[in-house]
Amino acid sequence: MRKDGRRPDQLRPVNIIPGFLKYAEGSALIELGDTKVICSVSVEDRVPNFLKDTGMGWITAEYAMLPRATHTRTTRDSITGKKGRSYEIQRLIGRSLRAVVDLSLLGERTFWVDCDVIQADGGTRTASITGAFVALQQAINRLLTQGLLSQNPVRDFVAAVSVGLVGGEIILDLSYEEDHLAEIDANFVMTQKKQIVEIQAAAEKEPFPWETFEKMKKLAEIGISHLVQIQHKALEHA
User: Fold this and answer.
1) Residue 78 is part of a domain; what is its CATH number?
2) Under DSSP, is residue 150 helix (H, G, I), strand (E, B) or coil?
3) Whole domain around residue 126: which residue ranges?
4) How far, in Å, CA of 15 to CA of 38, rounded?
5) Is position 127 within any domain?
6) Is residue 53 part of a domain?
């Protein structure tokens, strides 16, 4: 048993509240244990220059963390100008969502996905991807209802989860404390059909064998399946 009483293959309590914001075309608050992220989607009737007159749409993301989302105050990126980690995460969110959407069915529209971490206890990027998908689907559903889209461009559900090796044991969905102690840390972005969108994995101390990675992937599949079920339930009540 882990410090919080979870089994190795158990997620933290997950709750997704769709329609969390009043004005956004799509939005969701995702709570993953003590990690909380507000995801919103805004739709603009224009696309980046490289997509003009192609009939294609675009999905892009921005990610930020509130100063007191963490144990001690962190200065906003807009003040320091340091955007390394935030930039890397928001690119990951954008790639993950575009992977499951047929951009040719969006029309020349840009879907802006904003993920704002209001409380962080590990897994902010995985929570952002999982919550952002719900917000995106909600926005697309709104456009379908309004007759602005002729068919649903979403090909599959997508979610993300962390897996790590802590104290010699492979565990699912690491909290901040577990992530800090991890010998191996990995983030898996996968679809409902168990197809891989992206994997980020690193050994913090020593290299690890392929067999360990395969065990981590199997655990990730369990977590993704649970998260997708929660996404479905959230959208049913959107």
Assistant:
1) 3.30.230.70
2) coil
3) 14-236
4) 12
5) yes
6) yes
pTM of this structure: 0.95
Tens of pLDDT along 115-145? 999 999 999 999 999 999 999 999 999 999 9
Q: Look at strands 110-119 and 58-65 and give their pairing.
A: parallel
Polymer length in residues for the chain = 238
Torsion (CA) 128, 225, 187, 152 in degrees, nearest 10: -50
79 pLDDT more than 70? no
Q: Which amino acid is at 184?
A: I
pLDDT at 52: 95
d(CA 152, CA 138) in angstroms, rounded, equals: 11
Residue 83 confidence (pLDDT) above 90:
no
Q: At what angle do helices 124-145 and 84-98 cross, to 10 degrees?
A: 40
Query: DSSP secondary-structure letter at 51?
Result: G
Query: What is the distance between the alpha carbons of residues 83 and 166, in angstroms, rounded to a whole number?
Result: 29
Token duo for residue 78: 């807009």
* pLDDT for 148: 96
Residue 108, domain member (yes or no)? yes
Total number of domains in the chain: 1
Name the 3-class secondary structure at 231: helix
Is the per-residue pLDDT at 1 higher than 80?
no
pLDDT digits (tens, 9 = 90+) for 155-168: 999 999 999 999 99
Asked if residue 44 belongs to a domain, the reply is: yes
How far apart (Å, rounded) are the C-alpha atoms in residues 84 and 96? 19
Torsion of CA 36, 202, 9, 2, to 10 degrees: -80
